[in-house]
Amino acid sequence: MESKYSLRFIPRFEADLNEIIDYIVFKLHNPDSAIKLINKVEDAILKRLDCPLAFEPFQSNRKRKNLYYRIYVDNFVICYVVIGKVMGVRRILYKGRNAGNLIK
């Protein structure tokens, strides 16, 4: 079944993911884990694309034009918004960081 939502990645998400993968590959010397993480991230995003609004939005302290939603993958949080029929993936952050302060 084809999703009724289209998918868009903003450059900041791509930069976040590249930074995480570089760290795993070059600092931790574990390219196999990096590949597994990429696959898990991709699978989680594609699965959520079927029903991106069916989950509780992120409760922010400030007023936002669009609600943020989260997907949890291992120790990471993927942040996205839904605008019309587009699921826009905005960030991927390490869970240990304060996501509320980093989402802009």
Structure characterization notes:
With 104 residues, the protein is α+β, with helices and mostly antiparallel strands. It has one domain (6-94): RelE-like (YaeB-like fold, 2-Layer Sandwich), CATH 3.30.2310. The chain has helices at residues 11-27, 31-48, 99-102; strands spanning 6-9, 68-73, 76-83, 86-94. A 4-stranded mixed sheet has the order 1-4-3-2. Helix 1 (11-27) runs antiparallel to helix 2. The chain is globular, with a radius of gyration of 14 Å. The termini are far apart. The model has no long low-confidence stretch (mean pLDDT 91).
Describe how the helices and strands are arranged:
Elements: E1 6-9, H1 11-27, H2 31-48, E2 68-73, E3 76-83, E4 86-94, H3 99-102
Parallel strand pairs: 1-4
Antiparallel strand pairs: 2-3, 3-4
Helix pairs in contact: 1-2
Task: State the main characteristics.
YaeB-like fold, 26% strand
- Helix/strand order, N-terminal first: EHHEEEH
CATH class descriptor = Alpha Beta
Shape: globular
Strand order of the largest sheet: 1-4-3-2
Give the second-level CATH assignment, the architecture. 2-Layer Sandwich
Number of strands: 4
The number of distinct structural domains comes to 1
Share of residues in strands: 25-35%
**Straight-line distance between termini:** 33 Å
